[in-house]
């Protein structure tokens, strides 16, 4: 059994891209691995979230994780800020993080380009805190997307430097978790790249049927194929990608054939079918979210038990790391 660590920042609700890109695979991982799933509330501070909304966002993400089927009996689910050992390891790992290396981090350069008024030290050392999240459990695997691969490489760098500096073979070299099949990248409804909160092109798992129907109707289309067997424009292929994710193979085949033969005036039916199938998928999740989100007793139990599971390992790791570095008690 391997150790897997994964976290999400509480910046809003989960959407279909999160569901197919992460959650469905988390459900598989928890069945055969020792998993630690956390809400990265400390990471969110780099963007200065509204203090009045931070706990609400944490509650939403936690409730949606549980509603989708992540099982607190099988995995540790906790808030990052509830594990002080992570912050202490973060401080120690900063001593192994050269400034020149951190300056080259792609995500840092991208964020300061987009938000030049918010260049803070927490943003600069973001990869070190991410490494602490992983190394505090000496994880074997981390489920990451393409945009996080460099951060995982930096984590391996810090693990190697620690082992070399203190002449030990203590930290593992965590690698990306390889799923059974290629991940589905859910596209946005506006035809521009993948579904994402910042792009305003999402269908959220908690959207009600009326909102889902409205969003799907607004998806970018055209006048239909210009002939038989013509290539689909990207924005039409996006609709078919969504259809393949939520609909039956028979439904997908029916609309694929309409495209192949060059039929016209069927986009409205495709959108209606797509909306119905998304609603069928999300209604049970939304109902469970509403029940869980209002159950303070259950949420407290889940996070307290998850934090205790996480702390048991985190305390051990931090104690051993400090001893290897020369910290001793009198």
From TrEMBL:
Pfam families in alphabetical order: tRNA-synt_1b
EC numbers on record: 6.1.1.2
GO CC, any one term: cytosol
Positions of short motif 'HIGH' region: 10-18
Keyword Kinase applies: no
Catalytic activity: tRNA(Trp) + L-tryptophan + ATP = L-tryptophyl-tRNA(Trp) + AMP + diphosphate + H(+)
InterPro entries: aa-tRNA-synth_I_CS (IPR001412), aa-tRNA-synth_Ic (IPR002305), Rossmann-like_a/b/a_fold (IPR014729), Trp-tRNA-ligase (IPR002306), Trp-tRNA-ligase_bac-type (IPR024109), Trp-tRNA_synthetase (IPR050203)
Keyword terms of this UniProt record: Aminoacyl-tRNA synthetase, ATP-binding, Cytoplasm, Ligase, Nucleotide-binding, Protein biosynthesis
Alphabetized PROSITE patterns for the sequence: AA_TRNA_LIGASE_I
Subcellular location(s) of the protein: Cytoplasm
Motif placement: 'KMSKS' region: 194-198
Role played: Catalyzes the attachment of tryptophan to tRNA(Trp).
PANTHER family for this protein: TRYPTOPHAN--TRNA LIGASE, MITOCHONDRIAL
Oligomer and partners: Homodimer.
Family: Belongs to the class-I aminoacyl-tRNA synthetase family.
Protein name: Tryptophan--tRNA ligase
Species this chain originates from: Azobacteroides pseudotrichonymphae genomovar. CFP2
